[in-house]
Design a protein that fits this description.
elongated, 3 helices, 48 residues
């Protein structure tokens, strides 16, 4: 189960990066999503 959550987290993170570089996050005013993912990446990496 932990592996599924780990993979799901990274799919969301990669999707957010793609949306950032294509400009969609700025258009939708959701740039804060990258900050949230950046803050949460350290506990996820340290946990596994």
């Amino acid at each position: 189960m932990a592996l599924i959550l780990y993979l799901l987290y990274y799919v969301v993170a990669i999707s957010a990066l793609v949306l950032h570089f294509t400009g969609h996050l700025e258009r939708w005013r959701m740039q804060w999503l990258l900050v949230v993912l950046a803050v949460t990446v350290f506990p996820v990496v340290l946990y596994l």
